[in-house]
Amino acid sequence: MADALKNVIAQSLECPVCLNTFTDPKILSCSHTYCKTCLDNLLECHGNDQMLRCPVCRAETQVPNKEVSKLPASLALKSLIEDMKNQSQLCTNCKYEDKPQAVVYCQDCGKYLCSTCLNTHSQWPDFISHEVLAMCEIVSGKLSVRRYRKCRKHPKEDEECFCSDCRRFACFRCVVMEHTKEGHGVIEAAVYESSHMTSIEDLKSKADKKRSCFQKYVAFIDEQKERVSNVQKQCTDDINIVYKESVRRLTEKKEILIVEVKGRIERVEKELDEMKKSAQEHITHLTTIADVVTNRTKIPSDMDALAAHDTLCGDLQEALKQKDPDYKQARESSKRGKNVSFKENVRMDELGLGKIVNAVEKNIALPTKNSMSVMVGTPDGNIAVGCRKGGLEIFSADGRLQQTVLKHQNIRGVGFLSDDRYVILDSSNNITLYTIEYTKLDVMFETLSKDEGGISKLTVDGDDQIYVSYGKAKKIQVFSPAGGKAIREIPCDGYEPKQVTSYNDYLIVASSDTIRLIDKQGVVKYDLRELGYFPYAAVSQGNTILIAKVKHDVGLVSIDEYTNELKHSQKLVIDYKIEKPGRIWYYLQQYRSGEIAFCTPDRLYIFH
Q: What is the pTM of this model?
């Protein structure tokens, strides 16, 4: 009886959160007690809030200045814990009254053993696999005893069952007396424990994924900060070069310019730092609460511990509902920094070095004149320009020609599958697949001939389905990468699809002076009519829709951003003067790094 009472007392000295013996126990206003460290972790999980919610009863306690140390201490528990530590543990295996002191504790037998009993147990064949803890390790707190769950009403009975309605463990006698009424769901304790651990592992896995998601976001912000910082360095270098060539009286102007560019960049960096801080706080939040929830040193042993773990699991599930990072916000902030540049004065009679301006565009002549037929983004973040005279010219975001591939293949349309294979549409409406190493694959597609379908264009969606639009036939065919016949057709009732672009579960179709957003059965969801000029659409890196309107007769292009309902959001480029090409044919795309690419038959323009 004394051993059973001692076991009950030991269980009462366990914190419901960490399931270890209390260390520096603190009392909440609801009278429940927890370790100070556990309360610090719980408070951290709630951010800047000074209110602590009890994991057992969910009552709130005000924490003065967010300092858990100022909460009242449980002096009685502290004293009892010290008494338990100082009390010599006797052997629980010896049968006679004058029991010797224990030297070890066997986790598998659940008994304290003296040196004589330890020698006897060591001779058992199965004893070699038992986990034995030295008493000095237990007393010092380095190791904790795994206690067997005993019923408090029937101390000799193990709690082998669990009632899912009462949310508590029970022995068989308690089940018969208290948990046989309708509505009580009783299962084996081991079954519940297994299910509980599976649930915890699932939460841990989700927390790891969410933490990884925000860690990638933080890395992305660091990358944007580095790019912005490089812009500041370049601007400062340019200013200093011009300064050294100017007279001594320009010193004051030089310092004004440096302060100005620094101020612009620091404002952007501050925005990015705030985004990074918010993401890191969420990572810390997820890590702290996940570590508390997934403490696997023990299985909850009573109602308080079970309630605490249920509450913590609920807190973790709430944390997992946090939306994934918004890359668009970070990208827009960094764009404002990356667009800063220094422009030198050209008039010698001006007493200024120059001024800070926003970079506007790059104007690159295409190697193959009057041949551009399509422009798409590549899997590695560049832009590929397809030529009807042959070849695919790939440009980086700074306007440099990286390489020209498929030089002898005339190209009308280009797409990329998820494994980076090229999908090429030629002027005869034939589709050809190429590997990433530009090896032609033996896959045939039964497309419409040019006489049947007219001029065709191509796009590939996120599910690797290939869409081919036909101007004359006024329809879109859908193909699998395996080739063969079209798996279905999408009608274009009353309009000619000149360009087609995949957008989430929809297609963006440009024709005449109208942009349409249609679903994959051909139903028009939204349209933008009477734009007045030739419109060309693309999908932005922020998953909005970009539309370029070209005044071909005067050589002016404007680019605007629209929502997924084709509602105007903002103007990006207003009446920019281009070199008027011979053909009325243009394309619009956006680099992964944010720059907007606009292509005419002869030239590539890159806007920041």
A: 0.47
